[in-house]
Amino acid sequence: MKSIEEIKPLLESPKKVVITMHQKPDADAMGSSLAMYHYLIQKGHDVTVISPTNFPDFLKWMPAAELVLDFESSNDKAMAALEGIDLLFCLDFNALYRTKNMAPFLEKMDCIKILIDHHLEPQPNFDYGVSDTSASSTAQLVYETIYKLGDDKLINLDIAACIYAGTVTDTGSFRFASTSARVHRMVADLMDRGLKHEIIHQNIYDNFLENRLRFLGHSLLNRMEVFYEYNTAMLAIPYTDLKRFDLMTGDTEGLVNFLLSIQGIKLAALIIDRNVEVKLSFRSKGDFDVNTFARKYFDGGGHFNASGGRSSDSLEKTVERFLKAIEENEEQLQ
Ligand code: 5GP
Ligand code: MN
Questions:
Q1: How many domains does the chain contain in total?
Q2: CA-based, 20 to 30 A from 144: which of 134, 167, 178, 283?
C-alpha cells in the first residue's frame, strides 16, 4: 500500500469518488466519511457517501448526513453511484467484509482503493492509504491527511464538526489511552477555526428518546452479570428486549462502557441477539487484549481495548461460549 500523501496527484483533476464505511456506522465512521466528503467536494470531485446499512438517528445532525445513501434501502442509487468510479475511499474499517452486503461488489471493483483507518491487522487489498493504530480515530487521520495534502486551508466548520464528533466518541470523550497530545492539539486547531463543541456533545449524547434510558435501567438491573473471579462483567440482551423497548439503530451504543465502571473489572462484554445473528462488543482496561480475544473466539476484531465480533449460535449458546472463553483466559484476566 502506497502512503496517503501519494494520492495528491490523483486529486488534481475531477474524479468520480465513493466514500464508504463499516456497516452500522458509528460517529467516527460517519464523521470521518463526511469530513472527507466536505473536503473532496471543495476539490471539485463528484462524491457520494454510501453506508452499507442504516445509521443511528443521533448522527443525522452531521452536515450532509441527509445525502448519505444506505446501500440496503437505496440500493439502486448506491449501485449507480458505484458505477465507473475512479476512487473508492474506505474509512474506519480495514477488511472488506465489514461492509456487509457491499463487500462482494467492492471486491470486484477495479478502481483505486484508498484506506484511512486505525484498526489492527489491515487486509492487503488497498492501493493507497494510512493504517495507524496509534490514532485516536479515523476522523483524526482524515484531519492529518488533509494537512499532509497541503489543504489545511480547506478545513471549514463542516469538516471540523465531523472530525470532532468522530474523535470525541472514539476517545470516550477524551479519556481513553489513545487521547494523545496530538489529539488535543488537533482539537485546539479546530476550536481556533471556530468549532462549537458543546452543541456537538448535546447532539450526540443528549438526543435519545425516553425508552432508551428505560432500556438502560432494565438492562443494568436485570441483564447484567458480574464474574468477579474473572474480573469480567457481561450484559446479554435477548431480542425480546430490543422489541419491548422499541430500540433503534444506535440505541445500544455505549452500553458496554457502563460495565467497565465497576471497580476491578478488566473485561466488559455486551452480547445482543439481533435476531439474524448475535453481535458481541468487548471493552477492556489495561493489558487485556480484546482484539485477539474477538478474533480468536468470535470471528471479529478491532482495537486492543475495544473490539467486536459475531456468532451464529443462539444467545444462550453464545453466552456459554463466552464463559468458556473467559475461563480459558483466566490468567490474563487477573
Ligand atoms: P463496537 O463494539 O462499538 O461495535 O466495536 C468496537 C470496535 O471493534 C470498533 O472499532 C469496531 O470497528 C470493531 N469491530 C466491531 N465488530 C467487529 C467485527 O465483527 N470485526 C472486526 N474486525 N472489527 C469489529
Ligand atoms: Mn473508529
A1: 2
A2: 283
Name the domain boundary from 159, 176, 205: 205
Beta strand pairing call for 232-237 and 46-51 = unpaired
Regarding pTM above 0.70, the answer is: yes
Same domain, 183 and 214: no
Decide whether any atom of ligand 1 lies within 6 Å of the 56 Cβ: no
Q: Give the number of the atom of ligand 1 that is nearest the alpha carbon of residue 24.
A: 4
CA distance 119 to 128: 16
Per-residue confidence (pLDDT) for residue 148, from 0 to 100? 98
Q: What are 11-14's contacts with CB under 8 Å, separation 24+? A: 11/40, 11/43, 11/45, 11/149, 14/44, 14/45, 14/46
The pLDDT score that the predictor gives to residue 256 is 97
Is the CB of 22 within 6 Å of ligand 1? yes
Q: What is the CATH number of the domain that holds 104?
A: 3.90.1640.10
Report which protein residue has its CA nearest ligand 1's atom 10: 302
- Same domain (yes/no): 179, 50: yes
CATH of the domain at 239: 3.10.310.30
* Closest residue by Cα to residue 170 from 139, 196, 216, 145: 139
Tell me the longest C-alpha to C-alpha distance in the chain.
Answer: 60
| 323 Cβ contact list (under 8 Å, min separation 6) | 227
Q: Ligand 1, atom 2: nearest CA belongs to which residue?
A: 281
Our answer on whether the CB atom of 231 is closer than 6 Å to any ligand 1 atom is: no
Give the per-residue pLDDT at 249.
84
Between CA 187 and CA 140 the distance in angstroms is 9
For residues 70-78, give the mean pLDDT.
Answer: 98
Residues 190, 220 share a domain: no
> Average pLDDT in the 17-31 region?
97
What pLDDT shows up at residue 124? 87
Residue 64 burial (CB count, 10 A): 16
